[in-house]
Amino acid sequence: MKLLLVACLSLVLSTERVVSLQQARLVFENAAKNEQIAADFLTKVTFPPNNILLGYKGAVTMIMAKHAFSPLKKLEYFNLGRAFLDQALKTEPNNIELRYLRFSIQCNSPSFLGYHNEKKSDKVVLLQEISRVTDAELKRKITQYLLQCSELTAQEKLALH
Asked: CA 116 to CA 77: how far, in whole Å?
């Protein structure tokens, strides 16, 4: 089933000129597993029309570091993506979706990259604001991520239910 989803997403991204928020969310979920989906997304989102898509562009660019062979290329992807995501967050620091992107990247990044400074504050914001999210799909994705995240205590996870 996941293979079918990946194939369909690749087909949609390869034929459309505009990327929707729903597509960006799907790409983010699958970028670590499929380099082609991530690369296709990045070619489509050259000039993001809004901060949230800029944030996704940054997050997916950072994930591309996982697929790169050269350590220099890995660092290049990571730093470029970080710049995009930080730019989006600078414009909208209270946007929960952007905080979710940064938190998930920080939780999965090697410590030597030094991208962990906002992990605690992002976690607090996500836990405090998740109940106010009106977009059901976004709320489900954030909640699902937080429930499997090792950064949350058992008590914090129980509060999400």
From this structure: 17
50: phi then psi, degrees, rounded to nearest 5: -150, 170
pTM for the structure as a whole = 0.88
Residue with the two structure tokens 């990044």? 109
DSSP single-letter state for residue 11: H
Rounded Cα–Cα distance for residues 14 and 10 (Å): 6
Q: How far apart are CA 92 and CA 52, in angstroms?
A: 9
Tell me if 85 sits within 8 A of 62, measured CB to CB. yes
Could you give the angle at the alpha carbon of 132 between the alpha carbons of 91 and 109, nearest 5°? 55
Max CA distance (Å), the chain: 45
Amino acid at 23: Q
pLDDT tens-digit readout, 87-134: 999 999 999 999 999 999 999 999 999 999 999 999 999 999 999 999
What string of DSSP letters covers 74-92? HHHHHHHHHHHHHHHHHH-
